[in-house]
Amino acid sequence: MDAPRYFVTFLDPRTGEARTRVFGRFADPELADRVARAQLGEAGCEVLDVRAETPVEALRHRISRSITRTLRIALGTGLALLAYHALFLRTGPRISDMPLGRLTLGMLLTFGFHGVLMIAALVFCWDIAFGEGPYNGR
């Protein structure tokens, strides 16, 4: 199981009010506290509190990530289907319906170019659907 996310509450020097934000995932609270104080101290912020996420916050985050992932997959699939339709299901003579004697070099090159475009569209859609997303290197 992943390490818990930690939230840090700090005093914003520009506005003078306390703000809370997600700080990262850490193996233990001491490490989270030490890193938060070091990083926010450099920015001129006073750290008020460092806490682990609650089960309700963890559930909300998990649901939010699931919805986001589902929407990204739906968008990627939709774009892939749209690219397939635009490249291969147009009206006009299809290369697979023509006798070999009537095929021209231009037809073969066009079909190859459309195939390369389709592969590029699939790679792009794969990245949208399953891309890295937010990352915290700590």
Uncertain segments are none
Instruction: Give the strand tally.
Output: 3
Count of DSSP H/I helices: 3
What does the average pLDDT come to? 81
Describe the structure concisely for a colleague:
This protein has 138 residues and is α+β, with helices and mostly antiparallel strands. Helix content is 54%, strand content 16%. A hairpin with a 6-residue loop joins strand 1 and strand 2 (18-25).
Structure description:
The mean pLDDT is 81. The protein is 54% helix and 16% strand. The chain contains three helices and three strands. Helix 2 runs antiparallel to helix 3. The two termini are 16 Å apart. It is α+β, with helices and mostly antiparallel strands.
List the helices and strands and how they pair.
Layout: E1 5-11, E2 18-25, H1 29-42, E3 46-52, H2 55-88, H3 105-130
Antiparallel strand pairs: 1-2, 1-3
Give short descriptive properties of this protein.
single chain, 138 residues, alpha+beta, three-stranded antiparallel sheet, 3 helices, rod-shaped
